[in-house]
Please model this.
Amino acid sequence: MLKIDGLTARRGGKTVLTDISLAVGPGETLAVLGESGAGKSTLVAATLGLVAPQLGTVTWDGRPLGRGGAALVMQEPRAAFNPALSLRRSVLEPLRAQGMPDDAARIDRLCAGLELDPAMLDRKPYTVSIGQAQRAGILRALIAAPPLVLFDEPLSALDAVTQKQTAGLITALQREEGFAALIVTHDLGYAAAHADAVAVLRAGRIEETAPAADFFRVPRSAYARSLVAAATSLGALERRVA
Model:
């Protein structure tokens, strides 16, 4: 289980996160909601160890997240890849960084689960569609079978149809692979359809945490109620990415 306990972190000379405590277990999805500037990206960076906490800990099963313990799917799919390398070479980097052998059978199986033609991996990032690049990014994140995968706005660069397809593929692969997922997103419809639990981040602090079903039925805090009301008025919850 991922456990974030009392995390306080600074970035750019100021405190961005204060006393953050969250948990997510294998096979579970925690969606972290919040407006721009709430500290979601810093939370991802601190979880990955890219930002050192001033206070608190980030652990998996009681131990610090080690090499290969977590993987990241980024918001902008093409920019997440080295443009000079083929997608295949980038996808294999996590295996090689951990001294693991190339696994063609696993690539083929994950490609099948992502509905991605394996031949597409021999192309450069900017010669494929954004949707294909994002699926390759998910493939790279999963290739070394990490117990935890972080998704930083994984659908925001995609069109509505591709969002729906990609969200469903992520959920299906999570059932097969059993990884814990921490997803930071503005998309309440995605969270309502795919998350087990929700945490609302506001100005670097946790405003509310709850099982997803309870949160979307009766959010407790005034701020959370305003988020749900805004999403409802825009039709986002009726157009859930299912």
